[in-house]
């Protein structure tokens, strides 16, 4: 994974990989609110290749959803502002495109799945109609053809008795089924990339497993890029290839999935991993990261995590740490790893 | 912690419960006295028997006619021992939240009994019922709706004292409220603030302080950390554990997050469609589950460890949860169970130690409602 | 889901569970802010609120202290001197300023004294309607079941009666129409709207967790109703009541226009009287109409501003 950073040299791209499908460079997003300017996203860099899953991990206020919304171009542009940054899709900066060009990409080449399927689906139209609409509008198919394709898609996302249910309304489906319908709509035009914003948070755990399995299968089949936005470390471990951890609008750590869990290089990541209870063991008192997630109106100076960090020193309160590549003790490059911590060496190497 | 009771004398159905010693009371004062009496650690303090709650489905504008019922809770029995935490897990629609409401008398039971220290609290009224309310309290799920937005924090935490003036004399109340704020880790100076000025985690602490105000013996926690950020969940869980030790509380912890339930509970009950599917100690349930639903549930939980994922057995259930208005005959899980056979649709499996494990000294010997119960470790990598 | 800006802003307090870590002192700058306080802060900055408030305060002053605004007599006119005298727009606030009517009475003086009728009826009716409608709505919403069914059907029946027609028919049978009579008639047919609003608000609030929590503590029904439910249902009720005020003022004028309103000085009466002379003396009808419109508008604007301030979605 390449990280574009002024200070640090760029590590080599993965073997055999072409240029990334989507690349976010130095993105900044601000909101003008009654109480001041909220800097929701503060210089975020990440990228996704075809067939790859990037998990963006963070809690409330981390900026993970706002970044995704900026990529999709669905932010309300007053209060929101993008003062800086580039979002490159297949090498072209979407922020510099016209609204028309952007609209063509949105939905067709990049699709988004939201957390709450019920409010994302129109309650007064049948699901068949809603899925079919995509075909009618973007591909000019007739009503009949669109309907046939809808049934095909519903089958593909494993909705039982699709032909019979194509005329049902969203409220007649369970939560898991509705999420599948959202996935079906996202897939309809065979996009290159899907952004899934907390797709399973509202679902039961058995349904969650089904939906994530489905997503993984479809991703493999269509070789799509997938950005999975979540706060659930368990889901991420199952599904992701690489992870970007966000805190207070910045990326604080990046790593391939196994590496992150085995050897985190940032105190926040380490804190999160230590604080979740395990299914397979029973522990003593949970490690708890002290303090609260940051208030974006008053981001602490220096490293935003410093009030909560067990290892904070003076420099942490004054200097904002930049995302630098993480290396082994002897200096060899660890591909795809970065950390925004002044003391990442202590964190990863103990 | 406390063992599920040893009912080896009984033959067919061995509920996970010990015998109820019904308290002999002849007057309200005696009832109140019995309620106030302390219970030894390890003794049963709450005994639920065959709890049933059906919500009628009606039709009609002025005079409603019943056309069916949502069988939210359909025969649940368990014991809660003093000082322990009993976890209840299950997915949406399993009835666990309804059980909480029934225990708190926020809903009327359709049938069944809830014995608190030997008295059936579903039939109490007046002073006795008030005494019960003092001793069984609840912490709610959503920190954003469980506090009255128009009351100050001091008023919210102090309200229990207004309703039960015998617990704290009037002059003492402010001090007690500040003490409670301190105990839950909040600054006592915040006593005049309003809920919206606090974060989710802090609001949940306020809810906990409110629950503690009357010095209850039992606290029923209905998904107390689900709505909180991950980093805050651990803080609140630690707080609750500390409070349990400090104030000698017994918890019923209802949640859908299986990892958290394991961490905090001594014993765990798994619910499905209004009934208990399996119940036992945390080790028995998590490491040696015998009911297929439990196994499927556990295998679906993602573990934050990419390596462990590979070795674990994955069970993906097909189909949807049936509607509680129309549950399947016999074993309710049979429509999604890979082991289902004819017997499963005709005979309701009783919650009992499976025959093959009876009398055997193995962690699999805990109550499970399955005709074909079998151990399967789905949590650890092979 | 937790939202990002609501962390406790006053302190950088770690809010730690560990007893060993003491909490630092809170910053004294953050005052406690109730939701009403927040709404008030919003209102103070809203231009529409300010304009309408100024108008309403003015109206109230006119109602209670008419002598400050005019020395003229609204009831007695000197036919010989002032029959249909034209307005002297230069002499602002004098008795001649807006002219005289067919009975030689100063239009301006009648404008000032006419405010009483409108304000008295407007406020009186709103007050009565809020109490009655609010009570019925609260009982129906909270107790549900058969009580709700019966009360709701009652509300439906009253709703079915056309408002103005009902009031007109009622007032027609009262030769002596004092303010109380008019208020009574308007309230009798108008209480249902607030009952509906209150019922809806109560049903929503009843399901909140904090009401369940109060029940779980063993709170009595009156406590739950007045401490928990009522304060949280006031917002929509206040909005509807404020806007209704304007509507009732308009209704009173309409009734007076039809000769069924108050017996005394009223803008509606003037508009009615002025109608016959509209070709030769437009001012008799014109100025009361303008005054009426401004008054109704002031209350409706106030209601809008209050609604925006109380609406949690815009926070």
TrEMBL record, chain B:
Cross-referenced SUPFAM superfamilies: P-loop containing nucleoside triphosphate hydrolases
Organism name: Streptomyces prunicolor
Residue span, ABC transporter domain: 46-298
SMART domains named in the record: AAA
Alphabetic keyword roster: ATP-binding, Nucleotide-binding, Transport
Pfam families: ABC_tran, oligo_HPY
InterPro entries the UniProt entry points to: AAA+_ATPase, ABC_transp_ATP-bind, ABC_transporter-like_ATP-bd, ABC_transporter-like_CS, Oligopep_ABC_C, P-loop_NTPase
Family: Belongs to the ABC transporter superfamily.
UniProt cross-references to CDD domains, sorted A to Z: ABC_NikE_OppD_transporters (cd03257)
Domain of life: Bacteria
Name of this chain's protein: Dipeptide ABC transporter ATP-binding protein
NCBIfam families per record: oligo_HPY, PRK11308.1
GO molecular function, one term: ATP binding
Automatic annotation (TrEMBL), chain C:
Annotated ABC transmembrane type-1 domain residues: 115-303
Region (Disordered): 1-31
Membrane association type: Multi-pass membrane protein
Keyword entries, A-Z: Cell membrane, Membrane, Transmembrane, Transmembrane helix, Transport
SUPFAM superfamilies: MetI-like
Main localization category: membrane
Recorded superkingdom: Bacteria
Entry keyword Transit peptide: no
Pfam families: BPD_transp_1, OppC_N
Record's keyword annotation contains Membrane: yes
Membrane spanning stretches: 48-69, 119-142, 154-174, 180-198, 233-260, 280-303
Cell compartments where the protein resides: Cell membrane
Signal sequence coordinates: none
PANTHER family reported in the protein's UniProt record: ABC TRANSPORTER PERMEASE PROTEIN, OLIGOPEPTIDE TRANSPORT SYSTEM PERMEASE PROTEIN APPC
Family statement drawn from the similarity comment of this UniProt entry: Belongs to the binding-protein-dependent transport system permease family.
Name of the protein this chain belongs to: ABC transporter permease
Taxonomic lineage of the native organism: Bacteria, Bacillati, Actinomycetota, Actinomycetes, Kitasatosporales
């Amino acid at each position: 994974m390449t990280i574009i950073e002024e200070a640090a040299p760029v590590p080599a791209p993965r073997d055999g990989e072409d240029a990334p499908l989507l690349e976010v460079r130095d993105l900044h997003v601000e909101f003008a609110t009654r109480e001041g300017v909220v800097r929701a996203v503060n210089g975020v860099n990440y990228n996704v290749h075809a067939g790859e899953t990037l998990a963006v991990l963070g809690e409330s206020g981390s900026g993970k959803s706002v970044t995704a919304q900026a990529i999709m171009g669905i932010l309300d542009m007053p209060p929101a502002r993008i003062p800086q940054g580039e979002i490159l899709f297949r090498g072209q900066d979407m922020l510099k495109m016209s609204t028309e060009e952007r609209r063509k990409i949105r939905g067709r080449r990049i699709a988004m799945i939201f957390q709450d399927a019920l409010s994302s689906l129109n309650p007064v139209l049948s699901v068949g109609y809603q899925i079919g609409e995509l075909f009618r509008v973007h591909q000019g198919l007739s009503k009949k053809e669109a309907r046939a394709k809808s049934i095909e898609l519903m089958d593909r996302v494993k909705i039982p008795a699709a032909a019979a249910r194509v005329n049902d309304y969203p409220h007649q489906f369970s939560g898991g089924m509705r999420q599948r319908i959202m996935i079906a709509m996202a897939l309809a035009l065979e996009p290159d990339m899907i952004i899934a914003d907390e797709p399973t948070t509202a679902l039961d755990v058995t349904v969650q497993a089904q939906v994530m399995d489905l997503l993984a299968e479809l991703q493999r089949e269509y070789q799509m890029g997938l950005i999975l936005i979540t706060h659930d470390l368990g889901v991420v471990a199952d599904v992701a290839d690489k992870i970007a951890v966000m805190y207070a609008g910045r990326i604080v750590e990046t790593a391939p999935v196994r590496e992150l869990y085995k050897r985190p290089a940032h105190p926040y990541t380490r804190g999160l991993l230590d604080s979740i209870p395990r299914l397979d063991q029973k522990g003593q008192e949970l490690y708890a990261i002290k303090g609260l997630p940051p208030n974006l109106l008053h981001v602490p100076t220096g490293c935003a995590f410093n009030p909560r960090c067990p290892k904070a020193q003076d420099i942490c309160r004054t200097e904002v740490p930049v995302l630098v590549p993480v290396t082994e003790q002897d200096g060899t490059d660890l591909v795809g790893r970065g950390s925004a911590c002044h003391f990442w060496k202590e964190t990863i190497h103990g | 912690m406390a063992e599920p009771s040893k009912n080896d004398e009984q033959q067919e159905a061995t509920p996970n419960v010990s015998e109820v010693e019904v308290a002999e009371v002849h007057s309200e004062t005696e009832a109140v006295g019995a309620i106030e009496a302390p219970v030894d650690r390890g003794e049963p303090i709450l005994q639920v028997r065959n709890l049933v709650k059906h919500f009628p489905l009606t039709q009609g504008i002025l005079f409603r006619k019943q056309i069916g019922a949502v069988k939210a809770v359909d025969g649940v029995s368990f014991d809660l021992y003093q000082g322990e935490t009993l976890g209840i897990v299950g997915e949406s629609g399993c009835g666990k939240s309804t059980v909480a409401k029934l225990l708190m008398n926020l809903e009327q039971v359709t049938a069944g009994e809830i014995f608190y220290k030997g008295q059936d609290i579903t039939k109490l009224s007046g002073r006795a019922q008030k005494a019960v309310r003092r001793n069984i309290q609840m912490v709610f799920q959503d920190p954003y709706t469980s506090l009255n937005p128009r009351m100050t924090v001091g008023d919210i935490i102090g309200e229990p004292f207004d309703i039960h003036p015998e617990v704290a004399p009037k002059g003492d109340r402010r001090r007690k409220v500040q003490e409670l704020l301190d105990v839950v880790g909040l600054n006592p100076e915040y006593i005049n603030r309003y809920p919206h000025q606090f974060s989710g985690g802090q609001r949940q602490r306020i809810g906990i302080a409110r629950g503690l105000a009357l010095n209850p013996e039992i606290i029923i926690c209905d998904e107390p950390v689900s709505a909180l950020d991950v980093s805050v969940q651990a803080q609140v869980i630690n707080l609750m554990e500390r409070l349990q030790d400090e104030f000698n509380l017994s918890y019923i912890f209802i949640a859908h997050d299986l990892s958290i339930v394991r961490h905090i509970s001594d014993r765990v009950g798994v619910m499905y469609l209004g009934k208990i599917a399996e119940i036992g100690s945390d080790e028995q349930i998590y490491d040696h589950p015998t009911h297929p639903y439990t196994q499927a549930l556990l295998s679906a939980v993602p573990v934050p460890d990419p390596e462990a994922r590979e070795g674990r057995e994955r069970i993906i259930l097909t189909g949807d949860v049936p509607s509680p208005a129309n549950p399947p005959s016999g074993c309710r899980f049979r429509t999604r169970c890979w082991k289902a056979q004819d017997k499963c649709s005709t005979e309701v499996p009783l919650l009992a130690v499976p025959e093959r494990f009876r009398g055997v000294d193995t962690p699999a010997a805990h109550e499970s409602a399955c005709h074909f119960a079998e151990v399967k470790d789905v949590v650890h990598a092979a | 889901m937790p939202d990002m800006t609501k962390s406790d802003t006053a302190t950088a307090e770690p809010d730690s569970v560990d007893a060993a870590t003491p909490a630092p002192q809170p910053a004294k700058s953050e005052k406690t802010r109730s939701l009403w306080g927040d709404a008030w802060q919003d209102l103070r900055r809203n231009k529409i609120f300010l304009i309408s408030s100024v108008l309403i305060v003015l109206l109230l002053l006119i109602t209670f202290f008419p002598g400050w605004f005019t020395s003229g007599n609204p009831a007695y006119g000197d036919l010989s001197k002032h029959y249909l005298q034209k307005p002297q727009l230069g002499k602002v606030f004098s008795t001649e300023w807006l002219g005289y009517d067919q009975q030689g009475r100063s239009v301006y003086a009648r404008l000032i004294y006419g405010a009483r009728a409108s304000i008295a009826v407007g406020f009186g009716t709103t007050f009565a309607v809020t109490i009655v409608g609010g009570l019925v709505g609260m009982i129906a919403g909270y107790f549900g079941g058969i009580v709700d069914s019966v009360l709701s059907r009652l509300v439906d029946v009253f709703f079915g009666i056309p408002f103005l027609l009902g009031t007109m028919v009622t007032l027609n049978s009262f030769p002596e129409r004092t303010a109380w009579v008019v208020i009574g008639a308007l309230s009798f047919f108008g209480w249902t709207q607030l009952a509906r609003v209150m019922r809806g608000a109560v049903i929503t609030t009843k399901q909140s967790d904090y009401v369940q929590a109060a029940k779980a503590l063993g709170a009595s029904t009156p406590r739950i109703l007045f401490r928990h439910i009522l304060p949280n249902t006031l917002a929509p009720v206040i909005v509807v009541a404020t806007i209704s005020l304007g509507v009732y003022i308009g209704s009173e004028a309409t009734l007076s226009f039809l000769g069924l309103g108050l017996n005394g000085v009223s803008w509606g009466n003037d508009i009615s009287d002025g109608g016959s002379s509209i070709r030769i003396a437009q001012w008799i009808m014109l100025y009361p109409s303008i005054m009426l419109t401004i008054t109704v508008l002031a209350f409706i604007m106030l209601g809008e501003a209050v609604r925006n301030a109380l609406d949690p979605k815009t926070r």
